Amino acid sequence: MFTKYDVIVVGAGHAGCEAAAAAANMGCRVILITMNMQTIAQMSCNPAMGGVAKGQIVREIDAMGGYSGIVTDETRVQFRMLNRSKGPAMWSPRAQSDRNLFARKWRNLLEDQPLIDMWQDMVKSLIVEGNIVKGVITGMGQEIKGDTVVLTNGTFLNGVIHIGEKQFGGGRAGESAAKGITEQLVSLGFESGRMKTGTPPRLDGRSIDYSQTEIQEGDSNPAKFSFLDTNVPDKQLCCHITYTNPEVHEILRTGFEKSPMFTGRIQGIGPRYCPSIEDKIDRFADRDRHQLFIEPEGWDTHEIYINGFSSSLPEEVQFKALQKIPGLQNVKMFRPGYAIEYDYFPPTQLSLSLETHLIHNLFFAGQINGTTGYEEAACQGMMAGMNAALRVKDKEPLVLSRSEAYIGVLIDDLVNKGTEEPYRMFTSRAEYRILLRQDNADIRLTPIAEKIGMKNMEARIQRIQQKNAATQFIKTSLQQISLTPDQVNDYLKSIDSSPIELKTKMIQLLSRPNVSLKALSKFNEGLESEFSKFDDEILESAEINIKYEGYIKKEQELVDKMSRLEGVKLHSEFNYHAIPALSNEAKSKLTRIKPSSIGQASRISGVSPSDISILLVYIGR
What we know:
The chain contains 22 helices and 22 strands. It is an alpha+beta fold. The relative contact order is 0.13.
């Protein structure tokens, strides 16, 4: 019934969809196995993509030929560029999507890919011969053979849903848990753990009094995620903001004795940076209110997502508390919030390619690795799919460095440091933020994707060439043209910038903090005409490169220094116990994690600078 596949992808969430698409776009035969064909690319929690650092990841996925950015652009209901008041290294795109359209668009893209087959069933075990995975066995007893397997099980591995004192098996509301894989992997020597996440109630928008809330509109001139020309909706929906209050907090506290989080029924650790509402009022007892975002689920539904009110308290307590929030006095609830516990596997058991150490050709991606968030899952899925395809083609794996991508930072953190709570990406986790901006993700990563064999990259490469040429043209033009005090001083005074006393090159003026490229170009008709040929994204990227050239150069010099350590390679079977001078902790961590270079070894928690020096001396001998 089944042919042998190059890549078997288990799970069709964000990680699974990107993994299947990436492997297929590298020419591999793929089968995507999901428990429910109706929930492919389901946005289980917030119907939004992007945010601080997460938006950079989505742009990186798009730059490498992934689909998350395209799907988000074409199904969005609102777009905002966060942190515009800060430097460009902090700018982070975020979009609300129509939940149903998002899933439908993803499914259409997958079904349009001739190298992807789909199968609805639960995978209960892997076919393992020696220490090599050979395929999977489904709940209906089907054996599906494949050269590589990518596990993207999300929250389904032995998932348990909690609402107050009630608990029942499930990987998502209304869907059963997946059993068998954890037990098999543990029997093969893998270490597993438990984690927890949660989701807020869904509300009936018709029962909300928006006049009592603050309106939050999208950007007036919205950007987008994809570097391609995507079909972006020409209108946006509004979100709204409201707040909890002391009365809400008191009602919530009445449910604490039935809360699975406080009674110990939940053993897994939840995400530090996205706590439940009961966790927030317990941890921050001195605060008398917390901000909540009222966010639409789509164009053609009244369903509302109440962001910031994730809860596992009894449903009657959730409902009573909601009714004391401004604008929600007459609210109707479609379903309560809940918490979910699930199995994960500490990612220190992986190589940087996301292949497991114990079983060859087996890759993990997404929440199975202890991460949280659609974006984190999607980028891991894409990388696992690419590396599975490269393994099939008997080529070297693709590993992005910390200076090349936020994706590289995420995977490097997971593999070298592990995680004991759901890992979420932040800009503060990256050392080279000025290099890893959202505007230059295509320049950084598209050539890499083309080089390893991703298909249909021609339009992207052409776009990069245009972008680079435009930046050089703009820079050269600004270096050649000067402005007089009479021309520009009124403008400089209007933006609180010091006036000039002598004729000054335009490129020097652009280096000032509040001076914009568009405003400067208006002082020269020829330039204004030439610059009007470039779209806003190209102009913005050129301005950033010119304005921050000195900082970019310094950061690149630091990267070049650190790359020397990355160039000192370590064999996966290196015997660290043969070096007596190494600390016992270093021997243990290095043996377990199996770093591929001295650079990677230096980032492992517990490996000291003196351990690295000893390694370098040993290798030098």
